[in-house]
Design goal:
about 170 residues, alpha+beta, Aminopeptidase, single chain
Length: about 170
């Protein structure tokens, strides 16, 4: 199901048939370093992860992470969407792209469209985002979107501190 469309991208729900791409993405060195190791090594692992993390989120929350595909051929580039993450108070803007597609503005385009979806369709008043302390590209993207740094935090089951950002998405900022 298509969720969003931009000038160059389509964001759609992740399907079981996307498992090989999800496996490849989750084993990119930058994904492992900046997002974390989800233990997804095989297509079977990825299929189980798609069911547990993505499809369950769509069914229970009404949103989740979406597959970002480039137009016109709909080649998978990465993921972007909204996550109700354990240990965080608020809905998290999450994204990750194959390194082959970095530096082309795809993450910025997908993230901006996702923020608009959160604001206008899902009526989420405040978004949060987390990033590794030394992930300059992600920090720059979040700041470009209007997110403000709040503090360093630790997520459950993780010893490494991450940077917490927030963005007030409603028209009236309190």
């Amino acid at each position: 199901m298509v969720i969003l469309e931009t000038e160059r991208l389509i964001l759609r729900q992740v399907l079981q048939s996307d498992a090989a791409f999800i496996r490849d993405l989750m084993n990119e060195p930058a994904y492992l370093k900046n997002i974390g190791d989800r233990g997804v090594r095989t297509v079977e692992d990825a299929t189980a992860y798609v069911n547990k993390a993505y499809i369950t989120s769509y069914e229970t929350k009404g949103f989740g992470l979406y597959l970002v595909c480039g137009k016109p051929g709909l080649e998978p580039l990465g993921i972007c969407g909204l996550v109700d993450r354990e240990g965080l108070e608020g809905i998290d803007l999450g994204y990750g792209f194959m390194s082959a597609f970095w530096g082309r503005g795809y993450a910025r385009e997908a993230a901006a469209a996702t923020v608009k979806l959160a604001r206008e369709k899902l009526e989420i008043d405040r978004l949060i985002a987390i990033t590794a302390e030394d992930n300059g590209a992600s920090i720059g993207l979040l700041e470009h979107l209007g997110f403000s740094f709040e503090k360093m935090i630790n997520l459950p089951h993780d010893d490494e501190e991450v940077r917490l950002y927030s963005l007030q998405t409603s028209a009236s900022v309190s």
